[in-house]
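Give me structure tokens for this 314-residue protein.
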Amino acid sequence: MLSGKDAQKQWEAENKIKELTDEQLYKYDEEKEQKIRQERPWERDPKYFKKVKISALALLKMAMHTTKGQPLEVMGLMQGKIEGDCFIVMDAFALPVEGTETRVNAGNEAIEYMGRYMDLSQLVGRSENVVGWYHSHPGYGYPFVAIVVDPVRTVSAGRVEIGAFRTYPEGYSPGASSSSEYQSIPMDKIEDYGVYHDKYYQLEIEFFKSSTDTKLLNVLWNKYWINILSSSAAIKNRNYTNDSINDIARKMDKAEHEIGRGGKMSGFMMEGKESKKKEETQLDKLTKDSIKLSTEVLQGIISQAVKDSLFNKH
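Here you go.
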């Protein structure tokens, strides 16, 4: 069995966390920060920002918060700075917000907490400003960088499933997307995705750490590691698994209906090759969804079996 230290090394490897030899990234230059915020080059270029660099400490804090909060949504803020076309996320903190399984609302309590937290950060020498927010469910329309963490897949995969996004200015049209990567979207979210898919773009993410935050990272890891050992992905994700199975079944019914209808109408509406290509595309997507879900369930079962053999010996 992996020790906590070995598991931490494996987690860092899975998330491709780079260890810095230079501590320069941790130095905060307020004059430089204010200069770029006043110049606001992102207003001239809607896709000015290209990358987000996140400290291992901030990544672990977000992972702990989002996995602990599921199935309810949670939200927090990130502190950091801007360097050229890159957001540097140094730290993150949770907000006391009201969450449901579909949305999270930041009320007066969260706003007051945020202000108080930032004041205390200044007192202890943490000068970085808020550069964005993180959420355990996609959101739209915020002017900073938005980090989305999938707590379900984080528990299943053993690495943090995370994405970084930034919204386009209002009225901006990015044109046709060049991305060919398939993304599984539940049927009840497809309408929202169709409305908002061209309102934001994805940023590249890198993770880093150094000797500066190693001690605190180790303390947090011990807590995270215990939670992972004492929880079951198969049990914790059971609602997600049931919803995913039902979603695939609904998509199969819809595909079967459209394929049957397309076959009858192909002579009038489209050439046979085009109809067949559309059918194959739908079935390919369903196959990918099924494989992904099966893999996640299998990972959860294997993990549970390993823990049972280790901790329930008689």
